[in-house]
Design a protein that fits this description.
This protein has 765 residues and is an alpha/beta fold. It is built from 30 helices and 33 strands. The protein starts with 20 loop residues before the first strand and ends with a strand. It binds ligand MGD (2 copies) and molybdenum atom (MO). One of its GO terms (cellular component) is membrane.
């Protein structure tokens, strides 16, 4: 019997060390070094002239939205430039002059490319034409668009049930593309729409929906000007949302205070030197007033302690809580208060590991203020108790009446530039009966009403052979999800994998039997049809919808826009036998917007209103309208403390981003603010732990996790002494994804536990 053809693909590529240099970690973010690095990256990839002229259009009214993070633009963008160092890197990455063309794939087999590091793979350049990897072949070869569309349509038709196909989305797609994609997937007959947000802010969505009735944040950018206190929890804005530092600076200049809660003292939260102002370049603004160095995943303990102390203070006669707000707008206060009494201050203090004086200062500050904003990101969401982490933040805001007024509210800081919009316009594995009804009346077909799969369920289904076709609208699924080995096996089980992408990544190498690459236009590129420029829309982290229009000449004449590609696939699948005219819709974004306005709440005037700086979608928390929740009130929650059983030789490890990456795209090998030059395989460790276990700086170790008696290993990391709590470790994602178990994730949100993985270390070679 001949064995089935299996390509010999490396899961993570080259793990040789790249020549580390250690420097001092920094105590400020941005400043002149940021300008220098921004220019270095863009000049290198694009040339100086094009770089400067393109950057001047970024985040401006008639330009394009930065494809990096989802931080909003101010009403009046700075004329000097409304972008940050890492936005410039995102542009350089997309607008690079380097190309991955048919010759490239002729020269290099997928096996060979897979032995390269992710850094080298990404730097190969932009994808330029549709490519096919045939069953049994090791080289991609060119394919015409129409043939690619037919091939996908044929495969989709051979599925025994539409639920055997998976349609993933990453949050860079426009509202129009995501809406059309969701519509096609439903017309095909499944809700299998896993999304990058399942691994990201899903815990926020669940917690906020259950407590406040909307899965999004409530603050607007202006609220940062008025806030008395901003708490930044489990987030590293200096690297991942650098433009947020300007908003924090404004708060400080207006007399506000900043509390950061993080196992690390991140440079971006210490001091900010605004590269767009003169004083910024010289001395800058100190940001954090109180840093609470919490142990990994002990935020619930810390927040409980703070709230317990606030309630006690109130009992001494001081006015600390907003009783008026609590009685008018909330439900469950008594139970919440009773639950807090179960814990002693000492036990909470010991668990969170924070110094008593820092807690005292925090309690004193919060007791006097009631315009509080809480910002958070992956440090809270990616734990088993991720949903409770966020509910505990909501509890604090409810106690203080810090919602629905200027300068106060919730601020989950989103990741991808349109991850929030994609969900708003219908990328969702849950069934919404309301949306299904509207789709039925607008488009004249009946969408499926069976719950679909999120990323963890999709992974399992492919692994077990219950799903056979995988399509990715952007992203790099295999490197982004947990458990790289399991993920690779899952994708390699598929009969067909399709990636709609701008740049080459590992998901083009670890594929199904047959694989397709469909290259698409990037945000920064002109999207022309019949000589006319088209525009798209996106939604930022604060619920504002606005337009985006590229300015650069597309990298190749073969590229299609995302809506065109989706329209093409749908048209090949349905031929003309469907009430929706897919091809027409894919080509005409005005028509898509027209349909969005008929289908989606808040999009009634998207066509007109998205002009200029855009418009806000409805948000019930801003109006203190909790009518959809139990008793018509915002809900207090009783949250559990985290549970970890960590043995003597084990640690809790968080996977974090370096300053030189965008998720699985590696811009460079430095992590400037943390003092690392030219290496990604590093492990941050407390010096006392190093002494206890007899490790020296730059000793080599493997990271080993053991869940359910399965040993998972990530090889070869260099130990770096770092200011991190004892018992905690940090390494970069995606390298460390080898050790994240696919079947351990947050309760209710299914977000993988990427920030609290129990590991032990083994000395490596
Ligand atoms: N340049 C750049 N920008 C990006 C991205 C990128 O990769 N590069 N990614 C985008 C995406 S998709 C996202 S989701 C965001 C991610 O933005 P972040 O969430 O800021 O990214 P992470 O590096 O995952 O950092 C998490 C932070 O949480 C802290 N942390 C970890 N565990 C805990 C904990 O248990 N408690 C507390 N309190 N803190 C903890 C870490 O020390 C770290 O500072 O950024 C977006 N923007
Ligand atoms: N261990 C660990 N794992 C994590 C995380 C973590 O903190 N730790 N973070 C998680 C989070 S928050 C997220 S959001 C996910 C990210 O998961 P993904 O969104 O799947 O990953 P990205 O690396 O952002 O995807 C990059 C690829 O997107 C494609 N791309 C870029 N721009 C465009 C575009 O405009 N259109 C199209 N069609 N394609 C484009 C390029 O080909 C590029 O290679 O990873 C998650 N995984
Ligand atoms: Mo994310």
């Amino acid at each position: 019997m001949s064995s089935p053809f299996k390509r010999n693909i490396s899961l993570i590529g080259d793990i040789n060390f790249t020549g580390i240099e250690l420097t001092d970690s920094k105590n400020f973010a941005a400043g002149l070094p940021a300008i220098k690095v921004a220019l270095q990256h863009t000049f290198k990839e694009m040339g100086a002239l094009e770089a400067l002229s393109t950057l001047s259009h970024m985040n401006q009214k008639n330009g394009f939205d930065c494809a990096g993070c989802a931080w909003p633009d101010p009403e009046k963008p700075s004329k000097l430039g409304e972008y940050c160092e890492n936005g410039a890197k995102a542009l350089a990455e997309e607008a690079t002059y380097k190309k991955v063309d048919a010759d490239f794939f002729k020269k290099y087999s997928v096996e060979e490319i897979s032995t390269w590091s992710d850094f080298k793979i990404g730097k190969s350049g932009r994808l330029t034409r549709p490519m096919l990897l045939k069953e049994g072949s090791l080289h991609y070869e060119p394919i015409e668009w129409n043939e690619a569309f037919s091939l996908i349509a044929e495969q989709l038709k051979t599925m025994e049930s539409p639920d055997e196909a998976i349609f993933y989305t990453s949050g860079r797609s426009s509202n129009e593309a995501a809406f059309l994609y969701g519509l096609f997937v439903r017309a095909y007959g499944t809700n299998n729409m896993p999304d990058c947000s399942n691994m990201c802010h899903e815990s926020s969505g669940v917690a906020l929906s259950e407590t406040l009735g909307i899965g999004k944040g409530s603050v607007k950018l202006e609220d940062f000007d008025e806030a008395e206190v901003i708490m930044v929890i489990g987030q590293n804005p200096g690297t991942n949302h650098p433009r947020m530092l300007s908003a924090l600076e404004k708060c400080k200049n207006n007399g506000g205070k900043i509390i950061s809660i993080n196992p690390l003292e991140e440079a971006g939260l210490i001091r900010f030197k605004d590269p767009q102002s003169f004083s910024g370049i010289t001395k800058g603004t100190s940001l954090t007033d109180i840093h609470l160095q919490v142990k990994i995943n002990e935020d619930v303990a810390l927040l409980k302690l703070i709230m317990k102390r606030l309630i006690q203070l109130e009992k001494t006669g001081k006015k600390v809580l907003d009783h008026q707000f609590i009685s008018t707008y909330t439900d469950g206060f008594e139970d919440f208060q009773k639950d807090l009494e179960r814990y002693t201050e000492n036990e909470l203090l010991e668990r969170c590991g924070v110094r008593q004086e820092a807690i005292d200062k925090t309690v004193a500050l919060l007791s006097e203020k009631n315009k509080i904003i809480i910002c958070w990101a992956m440090g809270l969401t990616q734990h088993k108790n991720g949903v409770d982490n966020i509910k505990e933040c909501v509890n604090l805001l409810l106690l203080k009446g810090s919602l629905g007024k200027p300068g106060a509210g919730t601020c989950p800081v989103r990741g991808h530039s349109n991850v929030q919009g994609d969900r708003t316009v219908g990328i969702m594995h849950h069934v919404s009966e309301e949306l299904n009804e509207t789709i039925k009346s607008v488009f004249d077909f009946t969408p499926p009403n069976k719950e679909g799969m999120d990323t963890v369920k999709a992974l399992e289904a492919m692994h077990e052979g219950r799903a056979k076709v995988f399509m990715g609208l952007g992203g790099n699924f295999v490197s982004a999800v947990s458990d790289t080995r399991y993920a690779a096996e899952a994708l390699q089980n598929c009969s067909l994998t399709v990636q709609i992408s701008t740049k080459l990544n590992r998901s083009h190498l670890i594929t199904g039997k047959t694989a397709l690459i469909l290259p698409t236009l990037g945000r920064s590129e002109k999207d022309e049809s019949h000589g006319k420029d088209r525009f798209l829309t996106v939604e930022n982290s604060m619920g504002k919808v606005h337009r985006t229009k590229g300015v650069l000449k597309p990298k190749s004449e073969h590229l299609k826009s995302e809506p065109e590609i989706i329209g093409g696939i749908a048209n090949a699948y349905f031929k003309n036998d469907h009430p929706v005219s897919w091809k027409e819709l894919g080509n005409d974004y005005d028509l898509i917007r027209q349909k969005m306005s008929e289908t989606l709440k808040g999009f009634e005037s998207v066509q007109k209103a998205s002009k200029g700086t855009g418009y806000y979608l409805p948000n019930n928390v801003r109006n203190l309208d909790f009518s959809k929740l139990e008793n018509g009130k915002a809900q207090f929650s009783t949250c559990k403390l985290a549970e970890h059983s960590v043995k003597q030789d084990e640690f809790i490890l968080m996977t974090i981003r370096s300053h030189d990456q965008f998720n699985t795209t590696i811009y460079g090998l430095n992590d400037r603010y943390r003092g690392i030059k030219n290496e990604r395989r590093v492990l941050f460790m407390n010096q006392r732990d190093m002494d206890t276990f007899n490790y020296k700086t730059l000793d080599v170790v493997d990271l080993v996790s053991n869940y359910d008696n399965i040993e998972r290993r990530a090889k070869r990391f260099l130990i770096i002494p770092y200011n991190i709590p004892q018992g905690n470790l940090a390494a970069y994602f995606p390298e460390a994804n080898m050790i994240v178990p696919h079947n351990h994730y947050a309760e209710k949100s299914n977000t993988p536990i990427s920030k609290s993985i129990i590991v032990h270390l083994e000395r490596g070679a």
